[in-house]
Amino acid sequence: xxxxxxxxxxxxxxxxxxxxxxxxxxxxxxxxxxxxxxxxxxxxxxxxxxxxxxxxxxxxxxxxxxxxxxxxxxxxxxxxxxxxxxxxxxxxxxxxxxxxxxxxxxxxxxxxxxxxxxxxxxxxxxxxxxxxxxxxxxxxxxxxxxxxxxxxxxxxxxxxxxxxxxxxxxxxxxxxxxxxxxxxxxxxxxxxxxxxxxxxxxxxxxxxxxxxx
Amino acid sequence: xxxxxxxxxxxxxxxxxxxxxxxxxxxxxxxxxxxxxxxxxxxxxxxxxxxxxxxxxxxxxxxxxxxxxxxxxxxxxxxxxxxxxxxxxxxxxxxxxxxxxxxxxxxxxxxxxxxxxxxxxxxxxxxxxxxxxxxxxxxxxxxxxxxxxxxxxxxxxxxxxxxxxxxxxxxxxxxxxxxxxxxxxxxxxxxxxxxxxxxxxxxxxxxxxxxxx
Lengths: 213, 213
Prior knowledge:
alpha+beta
């Protein structure tokens, strides 16, 4: 096994070309070519080293790549804004406003948009705070520190409620995602130390939480 | 126009749901549903605010999202490793080793893999150095500072040659991409100032370079 193969063997789970997630199912299994409608097959294209969906008719190669989730840590004095989820997965649990980055926007614009959509909250971006890889579900989270511009926020369509919470008020046993829990831990730890640093990390698969809302 | 619409209007070009790029054409136009093979149409799904490809048969929504390009700035003493491209776009021009992040890997693993593939170079990642949004082609670049572990590098299949270059040796008029030019400018400027900082920015569309290799 050469070094490239070794890195790939460590990086990639058994079937890297099919995105499987118990909670996020935005990508359907691919059966047909989206360009010409013929059947696709899974094969390693010439000059490539990974299996791809390739059209048996027009030979289009359909690449699949990780998605970015972008969001904010909206601050107001000593408190931050959390949203309680009105949608699956993790209905009823608390999260930071965040969601899939859209084509045509920047990471910061996506974070602003998600904060507006989920909490009707207007913020000013202060800087990138945390980047988490979640390779087992093909996602990269980017969370920005942001300053709330006013207190006229309220739950958007995907939230049950929105609330400003201090460190001691955070419902630690009702946090929706590992990324959010880690980000909040780092954030309050940095605040105690008087300096917000940029953090990178990787989230590994976890057993399903007993709390399902 | 409310605030969400205003942010979107500024963020999104005319047809945000179709990826168009003069140079990078990895996504085909979508005509058929990849799940069931029926025709798709472009429509705003219920509860959504953006047009999507939606199947007229099984009603699957086919989201499209930005892709990440990950790579390294491989350092050796006062020089860095550049690759001369053996493929389009920008055949014959110089670039940092970088490419599309794959499913199942982290950003840093992707950067290591691309550095191996394009330059057969083994590096140790030192940290994230630059993040560039390129919203008009739906990409986010992430470039890591990295330390070359040895000098046994050589051109991979997608490179014509690889070379260690000092600041005064960089072929500034033959750099393949705006992201790479900006990253190199920031890098050498930081080095003169004695401190490498993390940089974020956005690359706007540019007129095509007169140099095409």
